[in-house]
Amino acid sequence: MIDQAERPKKSPKGASPEDARLRQQAIGAKLRQMFDEVVNEPVPGDFLAILKRADEKSSGGR
């Protein structure tokens, strides 16, 4: 017996494979755009302070 989650997803009624492919490409493009925005955000000052303290501990407090 196949679990519901394991069944292949069917395209909505009337949607061609080409429509589904275009929809997936649009979703992929939006996800890449969102990822790029997150990657380019500045690192919060609190996090930088934590990293600085960790570096000082690992180098003997210098």
Blueprint of the fold:
Elements: H1 17-39, H2 45-58
Which descriptors apply to this entry?
single chain, 62 residues, mainly alpha
Outline:
The protein is mainly α.
Description of the molecule:
The structure is a single chain. It contains two helices and no strands. The mean pLDDT is 85. It has 62 residues and is mainly alpha-helical. The chain has a domain of 42 residues.
Largest sheet features? none
Decide which structural class fits the backbone: mainly alpha
Distance between the termini: 63 Å
Tell me the fraction of residues in β-strands, as a range: under 5%
Low-confidence region ranges? none
Q: How many extended strands?
A: 0
Principal-axis shape: elongated
- One letter per element, helices H and strands E, the order comes to HH
**Treating each run of at least 4 consecutive H or I residues as one helix, how many helices?**
2
The proportion of residues forming helix, as a percent range, comes to 55-70%
Average of the residue pLDDT scores: 85
**Alpha carbon gyration radius:** 23 Å
